[in-house]
Amino acid sequence: MPSSLPLSMPGVDLEPGKPPILRADSTGDAASWAAEHRDAVRALVAEHGSVLVRGLGLGDTAGTAAVVRRLASAPMTEKEAFAPRRAHSDGIYSSSKWPPHQPMCMHHELSYALEFPGLMLFACLTAPAADGATALADGPAVLGALPTDLVERFLREGWLLTRSYNEEIGASLADAFGSDDRDVIESYCRAAAIEFEWQPDGGLRTRQRRSAVVRHPVSGRRCWFNQIAFLNEWTLAPEIREYLVDVYGADGLPFNTRYGDGTPIGEDTVELLNEVYRSHTVREPWQDGDLMLVDNVRTAHSREPYEGPREVLVAMTDAVRLADCAPTVEVTAR
């Protein structure tokens, strides 16, 4: 039977500014340790929104997949990716391809989809020489810190994600939809409540309106749950934004976010969102072999800039439907 270790057990470090850190003594068999301690690990995630397990000694994809199978449900196949990943066997992915010197700001994975992971698992096979943490922020706390009028507007309107797919930058059609066949893509978009328009050059533009605030499917707590700041043009480095606007035009950016009624979100609002995230960020530098479990609905995550090689594998599990999270904006698949 799996052990049910108390949350105050020795080996769990609860320090301000850091996620909970569980010291594991796996004696070289990480999969057996995961099977034995599954309930305790999941209880820590339920209480705190995340836990970093240190001492498992994860070093390859097969070992990571074995641990994931014992801690979570079957991994999800990613759809609607915003950046390319390498898919490994057993539902394990590489981290999204993103320039090492550029941050990936706070977001909830696939929060623009109708089905998204309830649990994210990150396995560090190679820690970077400097920085590169997968930092976290608590969604209910972020929601409580935002101005009331801003929250009320997003509650009423939701948020709008616009995307422009081309062959030059960002995720390809095959990366996002698993196919570049127009019929397959159009069927997916209709089922996923995504408006689409093919461009004369063969590119695709899409729009999807989603709720910015949801209720956690287990706890019922309201969570700020979206990618409004991360996928907005004003979060991009100025030189990158200027280049993209110059090449593709203001309406042809690979991705951008707006208020739910289509009104642009101002630079000051995006900075406010990112500042609230920063003030609620916790982080712990990666060490080789670490595993971090993150409640994706409750907890946002980011990737900080880094130096040197960095290999972090990702699994998306415990699928959750938006419809089960009390969305504030009606979404109807066509």
TrEMBL record:
Cofactor annotation: Fe(2+)
Domain TauD/TfdA-like: 28-316
Presence of keyword DNA damage: no
GO-annotated molecular function: dioxygenase activity
SUPFAM superfamilies: Clavaminate synthase-like
Keywords: Antibiotic biosynthesis, Dioxygenase, Iron, Oxidoreductase
Signal peptide: none
Alphabetical GO biological process terms: antibiotic biosynthetic process
PANTHER family noted in UniProt: GAMMA-BUTYROBETAINE HYDROXYLASE-RELATED, TAUD_TFDA-LIKE DOMAIN-CONTAINING PROTEIN
Protein name in UniProt: TauD/TfdA family dioxygenase
Lineage: Bacteria, Bacillati, Actinomycetota, Actinomycetes, Kitasatosporales
